[in-house]
Amino acid sequence: MTINVGDGLPEGTLSEYIEVETEGCSLGPNTFQVSDLVKGKTIAIFGLPGAYTPTCSAQHVPGYVKLADQLKAKGVDEIWCISVNDAFVMGAWGRDQKATGTVRMMADGSATFAKALGLDMDLTARGMGVRMQRCSMLVVDGVVKQLNIEAPGKFEVSNAETLLKQLG
């Protein structure tokens, strides 16, 4: 079953590569409970099939980095990119995309969270295993307020521009 507008996010964990050690976050991969991260916050989340893939690298992540200030001006506290990759890959990709400090590059290494959302897709035949569908959502205090799921192979509704327009 796929998550819908009005649903609460499922329980789950995501990992993030932390570049600078801070209180409560050590250097390297850190694992977080999604329910703890979303409490009391407005979060723009976009999911995509994989780090370093063409559309994801050329359009999806750069769009959210470029429009981050505008999204935050409309009340977004954080922007997350979720992909079925490990935290090391997501951290390196975030550095390459100049997303560090702007977009949280969240790893769903075993596609557990993607499956819980009902947004997983099997790309095993293409040598990529199980991945996350390309999507975007606005989550307010853990509840999905906007949801944009792309048709297979498309990049039309999960971009930063669409989510920004939906914020009004």
Automatic annotation (TrEMBL):
Q: State the protein's name.
A: Glutathione-dependent peroxiredoxin
Q: So where's the catalytic machinery, residue-wise?
A: 56 (cysteine sulfenic acid (-soh) intermediate)
Which Gene Ontology CC terms are recorded? cytoplasm
Q: Function of this protein?
A: Thiol-specific peroxidase that catalyzes the reduction of hydrogen peroxide and organic hydroperoxides to water and alcohols, respectively. Plays a role in cell protection against oxidative stress by detoxifying peroxides.
Q: Does the keyword Hydrolase apply?
A: no
Q: Which residues form the Thioredoxin domain?
A: 3-168
Species whose genome carries this gene: Noviherbaspirillum galbum
GO molecular function annotation: thioredoxin peroxidase activity
Name of the top EC class for this enzyme: oxidoreductase
The reaction(s) this protein catalyses:
a hydroperoxide + 2 glutathione = an alcohol + glutathione disulfide + H2O
Keyword set for this entry?
Antioxidant, Oxidoreductase, Peroxidase, Redox-active center
Per the UniProt entry, the Enzyme Commission number(s) are 1.11.1.27
Q: Which domain of life is it from?
A: Bacteria
A Gene Ontology biological process term = cell redox homeostasis
Q: Which family does it belong to?
A: Belongs to the peroxiredoxin family. Prx5 subfamily.
